[in-house]
Structure formats: C-alpha cells, structure tokens
Write a structure and sequence with these properties.
Signal peptide (chain B): 1-22
Largest interface: A-B, 52 and 47 residues
Largest sheet of chain B: 10 strands, mixed
Number of helices of chain B: 20
Order of helices and strands of chain A: HHHEEHHHHHHHHHHHH
Distance between the termini of chain B: 42 Å
Pfam families (chain B): SBP_bac_1 (PF01547)
CATH superfamily of the largest domain in chain A: MetI-like
CATH class of the largest domain in chain B: Alpha Beta
Structural class of chain A: mainly alpha
CATH class of the largest domain in chain A: Mainly Alpha
CATH architecture of the largest domain in chain A: Orthogonal Bundle
Family (chain B): Belongs to the bacterial solute-binding protein 1 family.
Helix content of chain A: over 70%
Number of domains of chain A: 2
Distance between the termini of chain A: 46 Å
Keywords (chain B): Signal, Transport
Oligomer: heterodimer
Radius of gyration of chain B: 22 Å
Largest sheet of chain A: 2 strands, antiparallel
Organism (chain B): Cellulomonas triticagri
C-alpha cells in the first residue's frame, strides 16, 4: 500500500527546466491531484468497507423483520413505528437526553476551568496537564470496572474512605438509587474524558493572540469582561468542536451504564444504545435494532448540524 | 470518539452478518475433511483442551476447539451461523438449545441418540432441553446443578448445628438471621439481585421444591403470578428486610455475591457445582453442601450444564457425531469426573463421581431430580439483566410495593413475550 504513494513526489522538480510555465502547472497540479487521490484512497477504502457499506446494510435491515437466525421478511416502516411507540425505547431516549444535558455542561465547565488553570506553560502547569490527561488513555470499559469496584458497598476502597471522612456509610449501596448511581457514573466520565476537552480548549486558548487581551486590559477591561468579550468569542471554533464531541459522546453512551449500573436501579439508567443492544442481541431482533440505530444516527446528525449552525452563525454576527 | 467507534463496530458486525447472508454458499469452511471444529465458552478452556487432546490421540478424526467469550457466546454463535461461518459442533448452555433447535440450525440426531446403548441413562433434564417438537438435537455433555452452600464455621458460631443444614424455608430464614446476628460484619444470605440468569439457576429451585413452577411444561405459559413464586420472593424480601443480606445484593449482577461467600463472612448461598471447585481450591471456608429446600421440606435443583449439538451446516457431520458419541461415553465422562465436573451419565455417577468427595452425593442426587425451564425465548425472558425476571426480583425483593402486584405485572409482560414467540 505504501509503495505507490511514496514514489511520485520526485519527478516534479525534473520537469522544471524543459516545459513552459502554463504546461508545467497543469502537469504539476494533475500529479498533485493524483497523489492526493492515492493518499486518500486507503482511508476511503476503509471508510467504505467499515462504515458506508455496513451503514447501507443497517438501513436495509431496518426495513425487515430480521431475526438473528431464520428468514427475514420485508416489513416497510413497521420497525420505525414500533420503536417510536415502544415505551422502553422512549424511556431510554429520554434518559439519554437527560444524561447529555447534565454531562455536556458539566464536562465543559470542568474542562474550561482546568484549561484556564494549566495555562501559562510553566513546569507545574505542564505537570498538571499531564495528570489531568492520563485517564483519557484508559479504556472506558476498564475505567468503568475500576470505579464500580471502588464504590462497591463493603468491598470498595472509595466507600471505605468515604466512611472515614464521615461522608458515606460504607455498607450503603450507592448503585441502588438513581441519583447516587448517576453521580458516580458522571464522576467517572468526567475523570475519564475531561482531560481531552481540557487539551482541546488549551490549544484554543493558546491560539488567541496576546495582543488582543493586552489591548483590552489597556482599555480598562476587567478579568471577567476580557474573558466574556475577548476569550469566549475567539474560542468559538474550539467550543464548537468540543461541544459536538461531547454531545455525540453522551448521546452514544453505553459502556459506562452497561458495566457500572447494568441499566439499574429498576432499568432507570438504560441509554438508547443500550436499548438497541438489548433489542439486537438479547431479543435477537436485528431489524428492530437496526431501526433504532438509524433513528439514533439521524437524531445525532441533526443535533450536530444544529450545533455547528448555531456556533457558526454567532461567529459571523 | 471511542463510543462512536463502538457503534460503528456494532453496525459493522450486523453488516458483516448481513453480507454473509447475501453471499450464500460462498463461505465454505477450510481445513481437511478429517477435522471437525467445536465452539465452547472460554471458561471451559482447560477441560475442553484435555478432552480434545484425549480424543485426537485415539481417533483419526481430529477436533479443533475454538474458545468464545462466555458473555457473548450466544450472540457470536448466532451471527456466525447466520453468516455460514459457524462451527461443526457447539457446546451450548442447555437453556439455549430450544432456541437454536427451533431456528433449524441444530442437526437432528434422534436416530443416533436412540441407538446409544446408554440412551436411557442420560440426564433427563438435558435430554428434554435438546428435544424440540419430539426430535432430538444434541446430547448431554456436562452437568451443573444448583445446591445450598453453607459456612459451617459461621453456623457453629451462631449456635446452629453445622451438620444439620436448613430443610425448610423457615429454617433457611432462621439460620440466616442467626448468622447475621452473631457478629458485626456477618451476613446470613447472599445472592446476585440484579442478575437474571443467576436467579433462574438459584432461586427457582425454591419454587420447584414447593410444587410450583415459572413456566408450564412446554414453555407456552408463564406462571410468574403463582403462589409458590410469590412465596420464594417473599422469603428473600423477609431476609433482606431483616438485614441478613449485605447491601451489594441489590445491584450485584454476578461476581460480587460469590466473592462475599468466599471471604467467609456469609452463612448461606445457593450456587452450582463449579462454585465447589472454587471453594475447595481457595481452601479458606469450611463449607457444607445440601439440597435447596422447599417451603415445607422436599428439595429441587436447576439442572444446568452444557449440551453438544452438531450444526446443520457442518461440513463433516459424521466426524462431528463421532465426537458427540465419544463425549457421552465412559472415557470422556471419567475425564470430567476426574476434573470435579458433574458427569451426565446417571448410570456412571455412583461409580466414577460420587466416591471422589462425600459432598458430591448431593450434586448427583440433584441431577436426578433437576428441573430446567423450557423456552425458546429463555434469553429474553430470564437471562436479560434488564428483563422481566430480573425486574420482578428487583421489585418484589427490594421494592416497597406489594409482591403480588409485582408478580401480576411480570406475568403480563412474560406472557406477552411468550405469545409473540409462539404466534
């Protein structure tokens, strides 16, 4: 795969003395185009093979009654109408939206605070930046198991520590009520992913020219005013990126709830992807599961598009 | 991004399965004709390795074992079969045999099984699970029955006779309360309250031993609103409310309840044959084994374990049957017994298994009277940790409301699932 991609760059220079100016440009641009196509090709093939084609298949499956084993039959939009009328699925969607509405601002604020704290590039700041970032490289599943163990009643070290600090009762089961279970999951997710958002925001902050802030100071702007009227508007492209990432991640939440709460207590923490998983791989109804995936994908695309649009428009205004 | 990838992977799996359906017949299996492939859940690695080595050394046909993660075995086998990429033989958890048989992916071996000289000595519970519409689709392979484990040391310290385990529900509750009351960090009883599969294995024997059931015999009607189911759930609720259980029971979906008993702080736990091996190798708890009792005496057990089935797409069905026949015969069953796994040959138990440990008699007896609920929708009905059965346990044992109300709601949902599966 690498050989043809690596070869072409050399001849461009050789053509220089012979050809006239316009001719050289066409050859060069044509070669550049060809090179570009070649370089993009591996990614395009992967994208087609592992994303576009399965996506097309998923969409096709969603119009069938498609059990894991046995015959599949065309049912038109029946999977969609039953998904939209399915209480379990709607409850899962409702929970996912609530989770997203809590997780997104939480992650954003914490990430922004951390990014502002580690600004400056001193040795200590870089050290803390590394510390905050480390959990990002741990897998979500591993992190989920870790935190689940930490807060197990009677067994978990965090529970024991909480009791010593007088905050908790170590034998109390924190996964047994909706609020406490959600708080633990949110804490885990924050710990796990906030480092990446912090890093993105840091790079956004760094790209803001120092002169602008200096000018504002000279004009008598306070810290808050400078932040509100200089930093935030100039940070907008980064904000768009961070928020789209964050919302997409939260809407697709699965591992943390599957592992830490098993959807409990009383099925109150089942997310949309979790419900899709149950439909496909516990009830073995792949067609219905595919319809849910498609609905989720459409919703996600719509939300992301809306976010982009909103953030872009305010930027122009 | 990570989660986006997960979804992409999920989509890809589904997509790949589909594509393989489209390219029907092209997915031929490799390997020479003397080889048969076998899929087994990963935790049976060592025993399956031993058996395969033994078989391969004495047969021209060679068996090739593939380990599949236990938690996704059914899903992986299902998608592989749908994609014509399945094995020749599958070692299935017996409760899933009706589903796979009903979907036509297991080969009919009725004539072969009936021709076995020991056909009538195979574990009856296993045989009933591989029977679908009067035809037989596999053979029993390994046994795993649920029994009561109790901590003798804690029983003695609580003033109970360690040689007289409880034989009625009232005695179970009294013993649990006595143990829980005998020390600060002691618990009387532990179970996995958020695990559907665990409780069909360990809780339903209480129901059966009292004359009730969770499903009718052919798996078409749910009986979750029966008096016996309510009674068993009531026993658990009473024990929970009396403070005999550690708080983790409420949300444990498998691993932690067993760990709690292993740590030596819990009086009673219902579990299976393999838990005994764990406790023996730990060597930390002095435990006894007894049958799971009914309300006023009697006993019952969940007869679990594996069955071996030839898949309909098998490239070498004769070779596959050769392995099935060998696996149910004396040599292979002896290997199981030597590894403390419960054999499924009722005629050999007293000879090859029971003499190894006095406690094994309890397992052997339990297999003879073992029940297994028969359903083509077992996974959705009982094994789903967010399903009807797990939900019923949550509501009835840990909820505030009336147990009968929880039973009525669960009965309605369970019947709807069964009706949908049979229409």
């Amino acid at each position: 795969m690498t050989a043809p991609v690596m070869a072409p760059p050399a001849p461009g220079g050789v053509a220089l003395p012979r050809g006239g100016r316009p001719r050289r440009r066409t050859t060069l641009s044509r070669r550049r185009t060809r090179l570009g196509v070649l370089m993009v090709l591996p990614a395009a093939v992967l994208l087609g093979l592992f994303f576009l084609w399965p996506l097309a298949q998923t969409i096709r499956m969603s119009f069938y009654d498609w059990p894991m084993l046995g015959e599949h039959t065309w049912v038109g939009l029946a999977n969609y109408t039953s998904a939209l009328g399915d209480e379990d699925f709607l409850a899962a969607v409702g929970f996912t939206l609530r989770y997203t509405l809590i997780a997104t601002p939480l992650l954003f604020v914490v990430a922004l605070v951390l990014a502002l704290l580690v600004r400056g590039g001193s040795r200590a700041a870089r050290g803390f930046q590394t510390i905050f970032f480390i959990p990002v490289v741990i897998g979500m599943a591993a992190a989920s198991y870790l935190w689940m163990y930490l807060f197990q009643p009677d067994l978990g070290p965090a529970s024991a520590l909480g009791e010593r600090a007088g905050l908790l009762d170590a034998s109390e089961n924190l996964f047994a009520t909706f609020t406490s279970a959600l708080v633990i999951v949110l804490a885990m997710v924050t710990w796990k992913v906030v480092g990446l958002q912090m890093l993105l925001l840091s790079s956004g902050l760094q790209s803001i020219p120092v002169e602008v802030n200096e000018a504002a100071r000279i004009d008598g702007a306070g810290r808050w005013q400078a932040f509100r009227h200089i930093t935030l508007p100039l940070l907008r492209p980064t904000l768009a990126l961070v928020l789209v990432f964050s919302v997409a991640g939260s809407l697709l939440a699965f591992d943390q709830f599957f592992i830490m709460t098993s959807g409990g207590p009383n099925n109150s923490t089942i997310t949309a992807v979790y419900q899709t998983y149950r439909t496909s791989f516990i009830q073995f109804e792949l067609g219905a599961g595919a319809a849910m995936s498609v609905l989720l994908m459409v919703a996600l695309a719509a939300v992301s598009a809306l976010q982009m649009l909103l953030l872009r428009n305010t930027d122009n205004a | 991004m990570r989660r986006a990838w997960r979804t992409a992977a999920l989509v890809a799996v589904v997509g790949l399965a589909t594509s393989a359906c489209a390219t029907l017949g092209l997915g031929g299996r490799g390997g020479d004709e003397n080889t048969v492939t076998l899929w087994v859940r990963d935790y049976q690695k060592s025993i399956m390795g031993t058996l395969a080595a033994e078989f391969n050394a004495t047969h021209e046909t060679q068996v090739e074992v593939t380990l599949v993660p236990a938690t996704s075995f059914v899903q992986k086998l299902g998608t592989a079969v749908a994609a014509y990429q399945g094995p020749d033989i599958a070692s299935l958890d017996l409760v899933f045999a009706p589903y796979f048989a009903s979907q036509g992916v297991l080969a009919d071996v009725t004539d072969e099984v009936e021709a076995l000289p020991y056909a009538d000595d195979l574990s009856p519970a296993h045989v009933s699970q591989v029977t679908y519409e009067d035809r037989i689709y596999g053979v029993p392979f390994t046994g795993d029955v649920s029994v009561m484990f109790y901590n003798k040391t804690l029983f003695a310290e609580a003033g109970l006779d360690p040689e007289a385990p409880p034989t009625t529900w009232a005695e179970v509750q009294a013993a649990a309360e006595a143990v829980a009351g005998s020390g600060e960090d002691r618990s009387g009883f532990v179970f996995s309250g958020a695990c559907g599969g665990c409780n069909i294995f360990s809780l339903t024997p209480l129901v059966w031993a009292s004359g009730g059931d969770v499903l009718n015999a052919d798996g078409t009607e749910a009986l979750l609103d029966s008096e016996e189911v309510g009674g068993a759930l009531g026993l658990y609720r009473d024990m929970y409310q009396a403070g005999t259980m550690p708080e983790l029971v409420r949300t444990d979906n498998g691993p932690n309840a067993a760990t709690a008993f292993q740590s030596g702080t819990v009086g009673i736990r219902f579990d299976g044959t393999s838990f005994m091996s764990t406790l023996v190798s730990d060597g930390a708890v002095d435990f006894g084994v007894a049958p799971i009792p009914g309300q006023d005496g009697g006993s019952a057990s969940f007869a679990g374990g594996d069955v071996l089935s030839v898949m309909t797409g098998a490239a070498n069905p004769e070779g596959a049957w050769e392995f099935l026949e060998w696996a149910t015969d004396r040599d292979a069953q002896q290997v199981l017994a030597d590894n403390a796994i419960l054999p499924i040959r009722m005629d050999l138990l007293d000879e090859i298994y029971v003499p190894r440990d006095p406690r094994f008699q309890v397992f052997a007896d339990a297999l003879g009277v073992g029940y297994t609920p028969y359903s083509v929708v077992e996974n959705e009905l009982f094994n789903d940790n967010n399903g009807v059965w797990a939900g019923l346990i949550q509501d009835a044992v840990f909820g505030q409301g009336d147990i009968a109300d929880a039973q009525r709601a669960a009965q309605e949902d369970a019947q709807a699932i069964l009706d949908k599966a049979t229409d």
